[in-house]
Amino acid sequence: MPLLPAVLLLVLFLAGPIAYCVYYAFTDMQLTGSAVTHFVGLANFTKALHDPQFINSVVLTVVFVVGSAVIGQNTFGLALAVLMAKASKPVRQITTGVVVAAWVLPEVVAGYLMYAFFFQQGSLNAILGGLGLPRQNWLYTMPILAVCLANVWRGTAFSMMVYSAALDEVPQELVEAAMVDGAGPWQRLWRVTLPVIRRTITTNLMLITLQTLAVFGLIYTMTHGGPGNRTETLPIFMYQQAFQNSLIGYGTAIALVLLLVGAVFSAVYLRLLKLEDD
Amino acid sequence: MALTDSTRRLSLRQPRSKPKPGRSPAATGGLSGLRRHLASRLAVNGVLLLVSLAFLLPLLWMLLASLNAHADFTLSVPSPPTFHNFGAVLNTTTTFQPMLNGLLLCGGGTLICVVCSILAAYPLSRYRSRLRRPFLYTVLFSTGLPITAVMIPVYSMFVQVNLIDSMLGTTLFLGASALPFGIWLMKNFMDGVPLVLEEAARIDGAGWFQVLWRVVLPLMRSGVTVVTIFTFIGMWGNFFVPFILLLSPEKLPASVSVFNFLSAHDQTQYGQLSAFSILYSIPVVVLYLVLARRFGGGFALGGALKG
Q1: % of chain A at pLDDT higher than 90
Q2: Which B residues, 25 through 44, put their C-beta within 8 Å of a C-beta on chain A?
Q3: What interface predicted TM-score (ipTM) does this complex get?
C-alpha cells in the first residue's frame, strides 16, 4: 500500500503530538526534574482563565490576527492586485518583485529587517524626521503596531498573488456591461468584481488567519514578546510558559487552545472548499 | 492638448489629477476616455511605485549595511563600499556549518516529504475507495493546523524517546509537518496526468509501482519540481522547529544561528549580520526565481485554493 509511509509519518509526528497535547494539557507536567506528573483535570484551563497574562495574550493575538491579516494583508493585498491590473507593465513587475521579495525572505531575516526599520535610529524615524513628523521609539511606544506592520510587510504578497490570479478570471464582459450601464470604477469594484471573487476572498481570509495565528519567529525576533508582555501573542506566551517557566503542562494547555482555534478555522476552510463528489 | 473640447461629452466623473501627455495611447472609446485613462493610469503607477519604495526600504538597508564597514540602523550609502563584512562571516562556524546543517535538515525533510507525497498522491488520485474522501479531508484539515502549537508536545515526546538534539529526528519531523500540503499539491498535479497512457501500460502487465515510476512521474516532472522547491523554501525559513528540537550549536541550521547571532552580538556588527542574512537568503530567492520563471506567478497557490 503506497499510502503507508505517509500515514505512518503523519500518525507518528502529527497525530501523535496532538493526542499527547490533549493528554498533557490535563497534567501538571514540568520541565525540570523527574518529578511525578499528576493528572490535574481542568486546573490548567481554570488557571489560564484567571491568569491576566493569558487574557492579555488572547487579546494581543486577536489584535494581531485581525489587524495584520484580516485588515492589513487582506485589504492591502486586494488593493494592490486591483491597482496592478490597471498599472503599466514595468510598474507591475517592479511592485510584484519587491513585495514578493519580502515574502520569500526567511522569517528571522524578515524579523531582523523589521527590527532595524522600526528601531529608534532606524529608517522609519529617519523618514518621519525628514517629513517633519514626530519620531518615536516604535518598538517601545507601539510594539504591537510595529509587529502588525511587520507582518503586513512580510505577508501581503500571498494575498496579492491570490487576488491577482482571481481578478484575471473575472469575466471581462461583466465589467464592460457595467461600464456601459454607467457604473463608475468604485461601483464596478463593489457590485461586480468583489461579488465574483467572493469565494476567493473567504478562502484567502481563512488561510492568512491560520498563517498569522501561528506566527512565532517574526515577533520573537523583533521583540521577544516584550517590552513587558505587550507583544506576547499566544504562541510566544505558550513558549515562555513551557520553556522559560518550565510549566510544560500549562504551556500545552495553551497550545491546545491555539490548536482548537486553528482547527475551527481549518474546518471552515474545509467546508468552503467542498471536495468534488465522487 | 487638443483633447480638451471633447471632455464634456461623457457624464462620468472627471479625473482629478492633471492629464499629462502619454507615450502610448492604448485606450479605446473616445478621446476623453483616453485622457482619463492616461491620468488614472499615471495615478495608479504613482501609488504603486510609492508602495514599492516602502517595501524596498528595509531590503535596501540590508544591502547597504552589508557593504558598510560601520553599519548602523540608519539608511546610508557606504563610502567606500566594502566586502569586508562578507569576508568576516564566511567561515566555518558562522556560515558554512549552519548552511550545511540547513541543507541536511531541509534537504532530508524535503526528500522525505516529496517521496511520501508521490506515493500517497497516487492512490488518492487514481483509485476510488471508501477511504479516499475521509483521508483527503484529513490531509486538507491538517494543512490548516498551526504547527507552532504542536511544538511543545513534540518536544515532550522527543524527550521521552531520546530524539532531542537529533538531526534525524528533526529531519523526520520537518518532513512530516510538510506532508499534508505536499500530498494535497501533489495530488492536484497528478490529477492533471491523463489516464490513457497508464491504461496502456497496465494492459502490458505493469504493476502500480512501474506505472507510477515509468508513466506518471515523467509526465508530471514540473509538478514534482514545484512541490520540491516549495517544500524546501518553507523548511529553509522555518525557525521554530529547529529552535525547539536542536540544542548543540554545531547542529543548528542558519535559521536559528542567525537568530543567535542577532541576539548575542553588539551594535557594531550589523554589517556582518546583514551580510550573513543575505547569504542565508540567497538559496530561497534563487529557488523562488526558478519557480516563478518556469511556472508563472500565482502557480502553486492555485492548488491551495481550489478544491
Answers
A1: 41
A2: 40-41, 44
A3: 0.89
